[in-house]
Amino acid sequence: MTTILVTGANRGIGLELVKALLNNGNTVVATARQPDTANALLELKKSRPGLEIETLDVTDEQSIAKLATKYDDRSLDGLINNAGIIGPDDQSTLNMDFRGWMDTFATNTVAPLQITQALMPALRQAPQARILTISSLMGSMSHSKSDRIAYRSSKTAVNKVMQALAEDVRQFNITVACAHPGWVQTDMGGANADITPAQSGTGLIDLFEGLTIEKTGTFFNYDGTILPW
Ligand SMILES: NC(=O)c1ccc[n+]([C@@H]2O[C@H](COP(=O)([O-])OP(=O)(O)OC[C@H]3O[C@@H](n4cnc5c(N)ncnc54)[C@H](OP(=O)(O)O)[C@@H]3O)[C@@H](O)[C@H]2O)c1
Q1: pLDDT tens profile 58-95
Q2: What distance in angstroms lies between residue 223's CA and the mean position of ligand 1's atoms?
Q3: How far is ligand 1, taken at its centre, from the CA of residue 170, in Å?
Q4: CA triplet 112, 117, 118: central angle to 5 degrees?
Q5: Whose CA is nearest to atom 17 of ligand 1?
Q6: What is the pTM of this model?
Q7: How many whole angstroms separate alpha carbon 79 and alpha carbon 95?
Q8: What domains can you pick out in the chain, each with its CATH number?
Q9: Are 136 and 155 in contact (CB under 8 A)?
């Protein structure tokens, strides 16, 4: 039985990641900023004994530390850094909300590594742990579009951080990858997006379950194809 922790699991893609992981027989630690009002997770828990719900604000150091203490003597087979924000209204190179840009970095770039470091002792206890960070093709250096540059740059940066992490934890047999979830019909992606959260979630979990150390340090699309950094 493997235990996987998912951040930002109360709605959108995160919720579908939780469902797909449970369907594959995993124990899932679904984290949310406010578990008491995470109604979809609370409903799911009624029929899924393998679901644990924990509090985590990914930008709050104390919240991260409190969660990590629960894994002091427990192994964790996987971490999916999913929580993310699109950033401020004004985020062009000619009109940037700089505070909002920093907040976007805090959530999308700094938090995934901070959470990973806090949970590293638990991940190292697993024989072959996996870390997947939900990034975005919008952060790929192969794209020259300039809209939403706070968001784009936060995803470019997290890709670089995770590529480096892959090298640093290879010695512990931990696999690290980033994934673009597709353009998904969530609050962030909007109703006109290409695919449903369930399509994205099942694709991402197929990818996640297939991650082996040979694939470490790779940026994938949700369908398993490799994307350019
Ligand atoms: N949708 C797309 O088309 C698309 C495309 C490319 C990449 N992505 C990426 O996919 C991931 C999930 O996106 P989504 O579409 O599911 O977005 P979403 O529907 O807006 O959901 C975002 C999730 O992140 C959580 N979150 C945000 N800030 C947080 C914080 N400080 N602490 C804890 N949780 C926090 C939210 O929690 P609350 O409910 O508490 O706000 C929510 O659970 C993100 O990393 C996003 O950048 C999405």
Answers
A1: 999 999 999 999 998 899 999 999 999 999 999 999 99
A2: 19
A3: 28
A4: 100
A5: 188
A6: 0.99
A7: 35
A8: 3-221 (3.40.50.720)
A9: yes
